[in-house]
Amino acid sequence: MNFRAVRAIYLFEMARTWRTLLQSIVSPVVSTSLYFVVFGAAIGSRIAEIEGVSYGTFIVPGLVMLSVLTQSIANASFGIYFPKFVGTIYELLSAPVSYFEIVLGYVGAAATKSIILGLIILATAALFVPLPIMHPWWMLTFLVLTAVTFSLFGFIIGIWADGFEKLQMIPLLVVTPLTFLGGSFYSVNMLPSGWRTITLLNPVVYLISGFRWSFYEIADVSVGLSIGVTLGFLAICMVMVWWIFKTGYRLKS
Amino acid sequence: MTPIISVANLSKTYGSGFKALNGINLEIRRGEIFALLGPNGAGKTTLISIICGIANPSEGRVTVDGHDINKDYRAARSMIGLVPQELHTDAFESVWATVSFSRGLFGKRKNPAHIEKVLKDLSLWDKKDAKIVTLSGGMKRRVMIAKALSHEPQILFLDEPTAGVDVELRKGMWEVVRTLQASGVTIILTTHYIEEAEEMADRIGVINKGEIILVEDKAGLMQKLGKKHLTLHLQSRIDAIPDSLAAYRLELSDDGRSVTYDYDTRGERTGITSLLGDLRAAGIRISDLDTSQSSLEDIFVSLVRAS
Question: Which of A138, A151, B97, B180 could pair covalently with A72 via S-S, beta carbons 3.0-4.6 A apart?
Fold first, then answer.
């Protein structure tokens, strides 16, 4: 195991974060704060409590997930796409590193970044609304698991993309809609039964539900199912990454 | 002595069906400077890419110091430093950071003293904190060489190292390459500048259309294939070459004061003695003479044309 290489990639990627601090940390925090002002304070005060939790408080886990999901994908996809784009990927391919080490470096850094971001957003939220956390360890488990899974997913997108447009396409056209419709701003139980069934096909529902349960012990689906679906998606991403490196897809001619 | 790189029966066919390499066999000796010459699209970069792990071979086997590049890629790759042809650099990193990163990537323990030495050798020391995006093309090229040398490789690949580099800098780079060779590093360079190969290389390989058409010691190659030219300066001007000398295919200069005779050093007889005799018989007197050898460029052009 070439730990020095993993460390070098990880630190290189983290250095990129600090260089682009405004874009990677500050802007998501600002946009999340805007959600609180609009949905929490302005509109939220007119909305009844959901399962005993005020609306402003209810949306916190969903908002954190929204940021963690999109930022994990953005960080990891950009992290691996950029060397491909400028050509510096040659060094990675000619270095004595295994594929596992490359993934560990890139995905580790992207996940670290979004975990830090998630925690900052939580801290920001705590300034606006009361924020009880019933199961802090489960909360962290869901946060880490989601960050890792979607960083891995972002890594796959970054390898697959052969232009900046494609890099944006999946996050904008697939992930954002799924997250908005995944119960960030409402309980799935509030939907008519037909829509509810359709919504249960959305994997993001399980992430948000499990994450919200760790705060308030209210959930749309059982916690076990949430963990199961998340691990399942993680496994799918791992298989895809394994295949990419095995075949050299879009990396090696 | 066992070769440091051994390429056996290597072929590469791209997805498009284009056959870039066709049954390449090549051995690189430990400690030599090997120049790979070939026209554009001959397969130079493809060959290097496969040895370094950037492209997959379709057939054949490559070992680096006995390590198979696929099965034992870690051992093989950690010996190799690669400077690709294109200027691929990060933009916003500092020179120091990007060179240190390369060392880490190759699994080497931190060694600021070594990085400092590399940067100084390449005249980059005063730019160590500069962002790469602010550097000139020649400096970026040297940053890439510094990255390749950061992990103390025993083999260095230089793909067109002096393309777009001014003459002074090119001489400086040759100096660095010679110093590296003196410290035991094996160097493989591809180049368009024949003078570079002529100046630097111990051995020369010529590749064309994906096949190695020749591998020779430079000196031997030049002697073996080199045509020599004998120029005879005449005491008095002549208007035409006498018919009695037609067989020598002499070339008369425009001012009529010298004639040039081409001969082949490979031949049993050069024909010089009889030429001098016949000149004398024709009443042409000689004031001076000199000989010159065809350059590697002439040799190269004739080889590629023939293949």
Answer: A151
